[in-house]
Amino acid sequence: MGKELKRSKDKKLFGVAAGIAEYFDVDVTIVRIIWAILILAYGTGLIAYLVCLFVMKEE
């Protein structure tokens, strides 16, 4: 089976950004910057983060 999207144990808050970074094999800082920009853009990033928090399994 391929890669699975999971929250990471290498986390600052809940491991969502680190889990996405591991899945796409990119630097976690880039993912965190994107989340911050999305949160500042009318709060859409916050909604997406909360959805990912509850949908993604913990590692």
Would you mind describing this structure in some detail?
By secondary structure, this protein is mainly α. The protein is globular and about 35 Å long. 12% of the residues are buried. The two termini are 16 Å apart. The chain has one domain (6-58). The chain contains three helices and two strands; from the N terminus they run βαααβ. The longest helix has 13 residues, at 28-40. The model has no long low-confidence stretch (mean pLDDT 89). A two-stranded parallel ribbon has the order 1-2. It has helices at 16-24, 28-40, 44-55, and strands at 6-7, 57-58.
Give the strand line-up of the largest sheet. 1-2
Written as H for each helix and E for each strand, in order along the chain, the element string is: EHHHE
Quick one: biggest sheet?
2 strands, parallel
Mean pLDDT: 89
**Poorly predicted runs:** none
Number of helices: 3
Portion in helices: 55-70%
Number of beta strands:
2
Basic shape: globular
Class by SSE composition = mainly alpha
Oligomer: single chain
- Compute the gyration radius: what is it? 11 Å
Query: Beta-strand level of the residues, as a percent range?
Result: 5-15%
